[in-house]
Amino acid sequence: MPEGHVIHRLADAVTDTFADRSVAVSSPQGRFDVSSLVGVPIERGEAVGKHLFIDFADGQVVHIHLGLIGKFHFEPHAEPWGEVRLRITDGVTDADLRGPQWCRIITTPRRTRWSPPAGPTRSAPTRTRTGATRGCDAPASRSPRC
Fold first, then answer.
1. 96 within domain boundaries
2. Spatial contact of 40 and 4, defined as CB atoms under 8 Å apart
């Protein structure tokens, strides 16, 4: 099963390869309808734990969890081979998703339920949860849990 650092690397690759570009999105396996994503620019990829989110400019989000056997490969443009659940391409590079546990289109508001509960992330190093330090105003010697 891919660990978090692998998902972060994939999110960075999505952003570096496809951000602010119009892409072709398809489901060669025919598992779901991606027609609403065709031609919509990708804003960024983001990892939250083992979840990969691909944010599109119109507010749609592709939510991917690779599970035990999922793979997401970036390769030079060519015909798809094998069981490709999702393909994102700019005509130069293809990102092919195979065997994920989850791959679905959600909306930005629904995506917020996977936001990290507290603390910094690579994409928001200064973010903290409101109230995360509640009750911790006392000096450290008087409040060992803080």
1. yes
2. no
Q: What is the pTM of this model?
A: 0.76
pLDDT at 64: 94
* Residue 24, Cβ density class (10 Å: 0-12 exposed, 13-18 middle, ≥19 buried): middle
- Reading the block at residue 75, the tokens are 């390769």
The answer as to whether 65 is a domain residue is yes
| β-bridge partners, 60 | 107
Joined tokens for residue 18: 């496809």
Distance between CA atoms of residues 104 and 62, nearest Å: 6
What is the domain-level CATH number for residue 29?
A: 3.20.190.10
Locate the DSSP E strands across the chain: 24-26, 42-48, 51-56, 60-65, 71-76, 86-89, 93-98, 102-107
User: CA–CA distance from 32 to each of 25, 49, 84, 110 (Å)?
Assistant: 11, 24, 12, 19
Evaluate whether residue 132 is within a structural domain: no
* Per-residue pLDDT tens digits for 85-121: 999 999 999 999 999 998 999 987 787 776 655 456 6
Tens of pLDDT, residue by residue over 70-90, are: 999 999 999 998 899 999 999
